[in-house]
Each structure stands twice: as structure tokens, then as C-alpha cells.
Design goal:
single chain, 57% helix, 2 domains, Arc Repressor Mutant, subunit A, mainly alpha, 167 residues
């Protein structure tokens, strides 16, 4: 949800501190993982409402540069570039979604939560979660089509959106 690995790690650490200090409030009738994720979600939403100045990273991504090993399963440079371009377009489209739509999309497709788990974490009725997912997918498809990506191609679909149409 924050689109920054270092920041996500900081929020995860904050989450586990809160889990530890509030362990006595856990209700064993619910799933422990859903309870933890609810705390993480709330910490993230709180952070997004009141952003702090960005912290500098010492790594800057240089540590992982050059570590990719090429083998038969590695896609061609063209396929990798197309997939990267699609991922960037999809990330931008997700960022433009309304927050309630973005939250359910991230929980469903990135965190692989069930609709029932999403409803529990976000404290929403199941019908609202289903409706928000449907509306989010519709908006994503429209945004991706407007950006030149279409469903009528033979690439692996990512959230039901296919490879960029070539002219």
C-alpha cells in the first residue's frame, strides 16, 4: 500500500510491536493472521493520512544489481521489458483508484486474501467487498484500455488485462 520496501518494513516492525503490546486484546474466536493484518492495515492507513518526511536509503537498489542469473526460464529482454511496462502501467492504474477500491485490490491480488478475510480485516460487509472488487476491476480495465493495453492479446493476463496492443 505504501509502494516503498523500506517504509513497508518499518510499518511491519511497528505492527509487530503493537501486536506484542496488545496481545491480551486478541479474541481467539477470530483468525490470528486477520487480527495482525487488521493492525497492519490500520498502521498503514494512519501513516498515509499523516505522512512523515521520506527517509533516505543507503541501498538505493544497487545491492541487487547484477545478481540475476540467466537460464532457460528467463524471459527474453523484449518480453521482460513488455512485462515491466505492463506492471508499471498497472501500478499507476492501481494508484489512481479510490482508496477503498485500492485496499481491496491489494489485499485480494497482492496479499491473496479471500473476500471473507478482506471483509474481516476492513470491517466491511462481504457484499461491499465484492462490490468494491468488481468496481475496482472495471475501473482498472477502463484505465488500462485508455492507456493502450487491451484484453485481446495472447500474453498472460494480469488482473484480466492483457498485453499491450501493437500497431
Amino acid at each position: 500500500m505504501v509502494r516503498d520496501t523500506a517504509l513497508a518494513e518499518d510499518l511491519a516492525q511497528e505492527t509487530f510491536v503493537k501486536v506484542f503490546t496488545r496481545l491480551s486484546t486478541f479474541d481467539s474466536r477470530h483468525k490470528f493472521s486477520s487480527w495482525i493484518f487488521k493492525i497492519a492495515h490500520n498502521a498503514t492507513v494512519d501513516f498515509l493520512r499523516h505522512p512523515r518526511p521520506p527517509m533516505s536509503s543507503l541501498d538505493d537498489g544497487q545491492e541487487s544489481a547484477g545478481k540475476q542469473v540467466l537460464d532457460a526460464a528467463t524471459p527474453s529482454p523484449l518480453a521482460a521489458a513488455e512485462r515491466s511496462e505492463l506492471a508499471g502501467a498497472l501500478d499507476a492504474a492501481i494508484d489512481r483508484l479510490r482508496p477503498e477500491y485500492r485496499h481491496v485490490v491489494i489485499l485480494r491480488y497482492q496479499e491473496e486474501f479471500s473476500q471473507e478475510e478482506i471483509a474481516e480485516v476492513l470491517n466491511l460487509p462481504l457484499g461491499t467487498v465484492k462490490s468494491n472488487l468488481h468496481r475496482a476491476r472495471t475501473e482498472l480495465a477502463e484505465t488500462m484500455r485508455a492507456a493502450g493495453w487491451g484484453p485481446n492479446c495472447n500474453a498472460e493476463p494480469l488482473l484480466s488485462v492483457g498485453k499491450r496492443e501493437r500497431s
